[in-house]
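User: Good morning. I'm curious how pyridoxal-5'-phosphate would be positioned relative to this chain. Could you predict the structure with it bound?
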Amino acid sequence: MPKYDLNDVIEANERLKRFAPLLQALFVELGPTRGIIESPLVPANAIKGGRSTSHGLFGNWFIKADHALPVAGSIKARGGIYEVLLHAEILSSKEGLMEAHGDPMQLISPEARRFFSKHRVSVGSTGNLGLSIGIIASALGFQSSVHMSSDAKPWKKAKLRDHNVHIIEHVGDYEFAVAAGRAQAAGDDRTYFIDDENSPHLFLGYSTAALRLKRQLDAAGIQVDSSNPLFVYLPCGVGGAPGGITFGLRHVFGDHVHCFFAEPVESPCMLTRLASMSDTSVSVQQFGLTNRTDADGLAVPRASEFAASIIKSHVSGIFTVLDEMLYEDLYLAERTVAIRIEPSSAAGFRGAEFLSRTDRGQNYLQKHGLITKMGRSTHIIWTTGGALVPVEEYQTYWERGHALHSAIPHEEGV
Ligand SMILES: *Cc1c(COP(=O)(O)O)cnc(C)c1O
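Assistant: Good morning! Here's the predicted structure, ligand included:
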């Protein structure tokens, strides 16, 4: 396997910068950022007040608001759009429609569109990756197909159809949908399959977030060094998005950043993969777990081997959350910091509590000499999806969270 380093992250970021004018031309919502797809870093200390007790909730809290990423409404925007742009660039260079490192605007010429319309981009997804890839592929003029699992949310299918994306539904879970998509594309040289379980390009696209976060922290005057640790809590599905970000952050901040993944109790595929200490992939079903969760973005039975092999030496730990916690935190996110997220996107909210209130969390802090530094720590909860959720759908999530929140006793009400 090729080795990746910080230069690959920088190169991916440079490619996205080079393509920014094209993205700006395709998507009006990118006007204000001149074609760069990025999310704000939002102060979020108010979340602590929503907890039953703020005991042990140290440091300065932020939300990295990828739930609001433009164009695709989820963390999948960076990776998915990156890989489709890369593919379009390579394909059109081969065809002689664009010289290597030429003007990306050539990719939206009528000739390029006509050419792309004879090609297909395909992907297996529970929803958000399909949205990201379907939207950019259609915008460039490609045909696109998304292989979906039966647990994909109906509104995500409807959105994809709005973008002229062909949906193939499979009975079975995410892993099955990816395998079916891969098999179908294998026999067709006009189809490019984006393999969520094994894609360096997606991974590097995601990793660019690290460089941008560094700039946002600098702009906010937040130091990250040996006396000011940074903790990041990332929802994890197959592992590509949180893995790419972790990979990037570790290259930017070294040992001063501590990245923790959050997975559903019934779908902890990266936890089981890394804890198994074996060299072969494992499925959560082997451990008697169901892979059933309302967190559709995280409902993955088997981790990406590509992501697992790279991040095993970078990820600090993994904690699991119940669906009830996702709903409660989705509700708290709205009440305390006025953001609207989907259930998968709420998985990182318990990270700081995991560290400060469990033996394992305490052991980690102790082992790394962090106990006395917690007062100067920064905590980033990465919210990963939600901007495209229809209002009525969101309302049902919110009500569920509200009911759960009201059912438990609290020191101070929110
Ligand atoms: C896909 C997704 C994730 C996790 O990304 P992976 O690459 O699958 O690990 C997290 N949150 C949301 C909302 C997602 O759609």
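The first strand starts at residue 41 and ends at 43. The chain has a mean pLDDT of 94.
Let me know if you'd like a different ligand tried.
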